[in-house]
Design goal:
alpha/beta; Alpha-Beta Plaits; nine-stranded mixed beta sheet; four-stranded antiparallel beta sheet; 30% helix
Length: 272
């Protein structure tokens, strides 16, 4: 397989896996399904996203999961009333497609670590702390100049602890050392309805690289949102709108339709 090709070159392979009921799809949320916002609570959910995910889940016979750094409860609020398999906080929480918890890591972030990070954030207007109980994140989208300083401070804060630093898109997150999105994908791939299927994972961020590595090891298709070449992903797709168009293509393909001849840029009108 050649490195980093446009996603269009695998459409025929996706169609074949669909016809064989061998396809499993894993999706990041922020920067993949939903554009980034200046605050995690200020996102704009694309029109018809829930309807698209509902159809996609049915098309895949349930083998669809959202893999996110967000808390499961936050993800469920975004897709409510839709029920999907979900992994939250980089593989620390899991639910099945009925919304029932399968596993939930509950060890809280030590209070002194949280307080030290909060104190740092107060000194830099525009930054903010997101507390997730079992992780804590420093968002600096509105204070981009603090990344180097914040990274240094956080590395000192977590030195000797059971935490590690995950760098994301304008966010630095402290999580338990055993968490990442690759483990989340592997968790689902060992369970029905994902078992013995070929995985596709679409993500945009540094934290998604763990997922790309996992999918590559499983013989699947890793897809990066954007054109950056410093990635483990084998394929790329332009942006969130293009992701939704591609998922719409997958969702509405059937053996009775010559999907190869369809044009993706006409498949999902009304998203912009």
């Amino acid at each position: 397989m050649l490195r980093f090709q446009n996603i269009n070159c695998i459409e025929s392979r996706i169609i074949k896996l669909l016809s064989q009921n061998k396809l499993a799809v894993f999706l990041d949320i922020d920067g993949t399904l939903i554009p980034y916002a200046n605050h995690p609570n200020n996102i704009t959910v694309p029109k018809n996203l829930k309807y698209l995910l509902y159809n996609l889940r049915n098309k895949l016979n349930g083998a669809l999961a959202l893999i996110s750094g967000r808390m499961v409860q936050d993800i469920q609020n975004i897709i409510n009333p839709l029920k999907l398999s979900v992994s939250g906080i980089h593989g620390l929480e899991y639910t099945n497609n009925h919304g029932q918890y399968l596993r939930n890591y509950t060890e809280p972030i030590p209070s002194d670590i949280y307080k030290r990070l909060y104190t740092f954030s107060k000194n830099y207007p525009g930054s903010m702390i997101e507390k997730k109980n079992i992780s804590v994140a420093l968002h600096y989208r509105n204070a981009p100049g603090i990344e180097k300083k914040a990274t240094s401070v956080i590395n000192r804060i977590i030195s000797g602890s059971d935490l590690k630093l995950l760098k994301g898109n304008k966010v630095l997150e402290l999580v338990p050392k055993n968490s990442n999105k690759g483990k989340a994908i592997n968790f689902f791939m060992n369970k029905q309805p994902f078992l013995n299927k070929i995985p596709v994972f679409i993500g945009d961020d540094v934290t998604d690289e763990y997922g790309f590595k996992s999918v590559n090891n499983l013989g699947g298709y890793s897809i990066k949102v954007g054109y950056q070449s410093n990635t483990l992903a084998n394929f790329f797709i332009k942006d969130t709108t293009s992701v939704l168009k591609f998922l719409n293509f997958v969702s509405f393909c059937s053996k009775k339709i010559r999907c190869q001849s369809l044009k993706l840029n006409h498949l999902y009108r009304g998203l912009n």
